[in-house]
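seq as requested:
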Amino acid sequence: MWESRKKQIMKQTVLIIDNNIEQLDIMTKIVLEVNENLEVYTVDSSAAAYELLMEVTIDVFIVDVVLNRDKPGDTSGMRLIEHIREIPKYMLTPVIFVTEESDPELYAYSELNCIGYIKKPFLKNEIKKVLKKALHYRTERNEDSTLIFRKNGIVYPVKIRDIVYIESADHMMYVHLCDKNTISIPYKTYSKILYEADADCLFQCSRSIVVNKNYVLGIDLPNRYIVLRNDLGKVDIGSTYRKKVMQEFARLK
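struct tokens:
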């Protein structure tokens, strides 16, 4: 079983893995003190962690080395990271280990690319320092993945890389594609679409429009619109989205 403590779609994600519920709560509070907009997930087992990270892209792992306290010499937290490192997109994702033992430290750094190592009883400032360092990195989102839309019992699989922008109007969603075709589907919230896409290239520029930044040619902030590549037109920028668009545009430079 896994739980999301902070739902902010497309924000950086942190997964805390520990079988001590009290410590999960303490660690979650500390993480959110570093950045309250992080999406923090907590799990109490390797199996739950593996299920979650295959569904949601994780940017930072915080893992207790000992996940089975009834087993002498347990290091199942490290074994979990060994398996995670075999998944291509998680080969370099920052990992912070938490443990009472110092023996596995050299192995954690040399073989598992551990970014930090916190010994119990830990100090809040130690965790914050390591986490701030880890948050400079972000796990790559897959733009070759597919979004699934349904209409009248028909399934429409669409590659994210082919989506130019999505707009909502009159309780419908219109998916505009790079080949200039448009798919109309029943209304679906943007939060759900962005969650399912899990792709950095999509961002919301108004209450009714999500755009693929790979198709952005230019941005006219004074007149509040985005010019699209390949004569695909332009889309409006919502008055309350100007700051967000400026931030996204800065990443494109």
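The two ends are 40 Å apart (CA to CA).
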